[in-house]
Amino acid sequence: MRKKQFSIIKTGPTECYLRSLSLLLVCLLILAACSETSVIDKVTKRGKLHVITRNAPAIYYEGREGLLGLEYELAQLFAQDLGVELDLKVASTRGQILSALDNNYTNLAAAFMVSSEGRSERYQYSVPYMSTAPLVVYRYGSPRPRKIEDLMGKRIAVVSDSYHSEELATLAENHPELTWQKLNIETIDLMKMVQDKSIDFAIVTSAELDIHQSFYPIVKEAFALGAPQNISWYFPRNTDLSLISRANNFFNRIAEDGTLMYLKERYFGHLKQLNYVGARTFIKHANGRLPQYTESFKKFSEQYGVDWRLMAALGYQESHWRARAVSPTGVRGLMMLTQPTAKEMGISNRLHPIESIKGGVKYFAKTKKRIPDRIPEPDRTWLALAAYNVGFGHMEDARILCEKADKNPDKWADVKECLPWLEKKQYYAKTKHGYARGKEPVSYVQNIRRYYDVLNWLTEQNEGTANPVRQNFAENLLRIGNASTEG
Fold first, then answer.
1. CB 82 within 8 Å of CB 249
2. pLDDT recorded at residue 478
3. What is the pTM of this model?
4. Which has the higher per-residue pLDDT, 211 or 304?
5. What is the CATH number assigned to the segment(s) 134-227?
6. How far is residue 482 from each of residues 286, 378, 461, 479, 487, measured CA to CA in Å?
7. What confidence score (pLDDT) does residue 360 get?
8. Between vectors from CA 196 to CA 225 and to CA 194, what angle results, nearest 5°?
9. Which of 99, 349, 373, 381 maximizes the CB count within 10 A of its CB?
């Protein structure tokens, strides 16, 4: 049998000491690593998720129904997913958000910010949940720039701490004469500066232009400055992967089950409905025609338990607040009631504006009550508006078609995809109520949603309850409306 051989290394006192010290250090490092608490464990133990955001329409704001905004709802859902409370802080600028991340004052930033490559060494990102493109915007009526060379020698501005400076810096490598200024303001202020001719051009994202377009209709897209970029949540650079992994799983799940799509539709699905001409016309009529009917909208809306601004927006969509409006199909009056509907609502004179408003509000309230109780807001309201336009039976037909197509019949985002099917024989032939002009209620609802947004901002300004962001919107809208009236 062959004997095993062992080699014995002789060491002196110094070597033994060094080896013991090294072993001790390794053990201490292992113990430290084992005892270190992950970020997700800290959040769970604390019972709160610290999130920082910024105040902007469709992102985070305080509405009449409470706190709203895509980022707010996403953060709220994520906190619920973790089983903790949401501790939300609102920063005034992007710079404050980045500072909070740099100093580990927050777990994450949910602020509708682009996950740019230039910041990847400074922050960590979640998976993207939206994309947006950098755009050059200009004032309608002035020469439109169409290429980088058209920007030379012009007054260009970007928001400080936005990724647009990175885009411009890259372009300046080949165009050294390209200059710009970084301003510690929000995108809304940049667009106002363009509209007021304080600057020639600004760089904004396509998503932000969509949000603010109706409030600054003179500011238009000139051209895309670069490729689309991803919008993600930001995390501190030194955070571990535990919270980021949970966030990524959360985004993947809500993308798969449709929650993310529904939230995007709620805050962005209707933003392009009001173009330059439409916005100016609406504000002109809001200043000139609406005041004589405001008290009637308030009175009957309170009586039947609906929002008067929504009813006023519906009235504008129907007739542009014209009391004697008549359509080729026989509907009449400010709320464009059919004769059978007017009779059902107890209205004898459809062309009398007060009677018409009463009949329209009463009919909408009755239609909304027919929507199944299980459907939450705001989908319940959007479906009721569609039914007001196309008829409850046709709207129910569209919901049935949705269900058969494995879509959600209780979500407006799905139903608006199914309504146009009522124009196609292969679909409407299988429904109870047959053919309908299904595209019309889609545009109808989206238009009303946009008018409703604007009326909310205007009335908050008049009541002195607008937050600073909405205050800027309202003041600018009134200015545009006055200019339209004078012109």
1. no
2. 44
3. 0.59
4. 304
5. 3.40.190.10
6. 10, 32, 15, 5, 8
7. 96
8. 5
9. 381
